[in-house]
Amino acid sequence: MSRDIASDIGCHQETDTYTDEDAVSAPLVRNRFHPGKLMDVRHWYLEQDYHRRTAALSARLGLGPGVLCGLDVELCDDESLVVGPGVALDGRGRLIIVERPVRIDRPEVPTDCLGRPDGEPVHDGTVAVRLCHHECGTEYVRTSSADCDPHEDCVPSLTAERFMLRITEGEPKFVGLSEEQCAAVFPVDKPEDFDRRRAIARHIDHDCGCGHDDGCVVLATLRFSSERDTRLNAVRSRPVVYSNRVLFELLLCLAARVDACCDALPSPAAPRIAGIWPPPISRGQGTERQRVLTEEHRLEITFDRDLREPALDSPDAWLGVWQLDAAGARRVRLERVGGELRHLVPPPGGEGVVYRVVFDEPLPESAGVAILARVEPTGEPRAAGGDRLS
Q1: How many CB atoms lie within 10 A of CB 12?
Q2: What is the DSSP string of 265-329?
Q3: 177/203 Cα distance (integer angstroms)
Q4: Residue 274: which of 300, 308, 310, 309 has the closest Cα?
Q5: Is the terminal CB of the chain with fewer CB neighbours within 10 Å at N or C?
Q6: b vs e for 100-124, b when ≥16 Cβ sit within 10 Å of the residue's Cβ?
Q7: How far is the CA of 243 from the CAs of 135, 215, 246, in angstroms?
């Protein structure tokens, strides 16, 4: 298997017909047809470039560069490398197809963008094996010039989209999220107001640039040492683009693990109301509760555990005081106030809260007052300790 890939496939001239392939801001231009439109060479290039650019931009920004399938790298006993067949998407959104295995006889020798030796062999250090997109002209034909000096040229009639294996010295740029980014998106001690969507937008790059040097895809790294211990790493720096089917299966596996984990946990218990003042009054004694509330405008409640403060500050989701009279039922406004409890004592490890009951107008003697509280495991208020549900 040849190291000179260009000569191996019969390519003799590199072409450059695909312009502005990295420019996201450059507007797309396509042909507008009309009867008698002259399609010259420039317009045919525009026609091709429009479709190539739209496909490349979608692939580069939607999928990202990486190995789509295959391209396994194997270190042989004689310390040569063999790259298996496969398909990749480079940093400019172009497909690279390797149809058969390719051997690299001396992977310790850096090469240039055409695969030619470029530098001294690396005997103590790291090199990266990169797969690069390579275009070359083929099927040459004879054509006449169109300028004032008539002559014939030999030009390629086809462009072969091939590949080149390049060796570069040094560690390649790490592909993926850093430890700092992972910690920012999935913090160990998550604050109550943590917004993961905002954390991702803040810490995960989403730029439009190419960001991958010459667009080549790193397939593996090779570490050489003075002890002649050559180590191949085809995982850490190798970007892989997984299909939607594989990603869906991974989500199902993760969901199964989450279900198994969560099903094993005990169901959370709702906080329990330990006491309430004014206390519940038996039938026929409703005027006593009314008198207490209208004179002191005070409501005290104690719980069996410490609770989250936001729910206590805004009790409308779980606590209500209602005025009942001939006109119907009207909700009375509650305001949390500070100070010590006067009529109740919280149980050990518990908590108490005091509210001011605000009546818009004096209650008629025939009116009644109802206090309704609802505490559920999935509602408010929630415990502030280890059994909190958020």
Answers
A1: 11
A2: SPPPPPP-EEEEESPP--TT-HHHHHHHHHHH-EEEEEESS-B-HHHHH-GGGTEEEEEEETTEE
A3: 10
A4: 300
A5: C
A6: eebebeebbbbbeeebeeeeeebee
A7: 27, 21, 5
CB 137 within 8 A of CB 158: yes
pLDDT bracket for residue 19 (50, 70, 90):
very low
pTM tops 0.70: no
DSSP-assigned letter for residue 349: T
d(CA 178, CA 236): 12
Which residues contact residue 158 at a Cβ distance below 8 angstroms, ignoring those fewer than 6 apart?
Answer: 137, 138, 139
- Residues 6 or more apart whose CB falls under 8 angstroms from that of 267 comprise 377
- 307-334: burial string, b at 16+ Cβ within 10 Å, e else: bbeebbeebeebbbbebbeeeeeeebeb
Q: For residue 168, give every residue at least 6 positions away whose Cβ sits within 8 Å of its Cβ, in sequence order, or none.
A: 110, 111, 127, 128, 130
Token look-up 């005290």 returns 300
* β-strands 231-233, 217-224 pairing: antiparallel
Q: How many residues does the chain have?
A: 390
The gap between the terminal CA atoms of the chain, to the nearest Å, is 60
* Position 323 confidence tier, pLDDT thresholds 50, 70, 90: confident
DSSP one-letter code for 164: E
The answer to whether residues 172 and 142 touch, using CB atoms and an 8 Å cutoff, is: no
**How far is the C-alpha of 383 from the C-alpha of 269, rounded, in Å?**
9
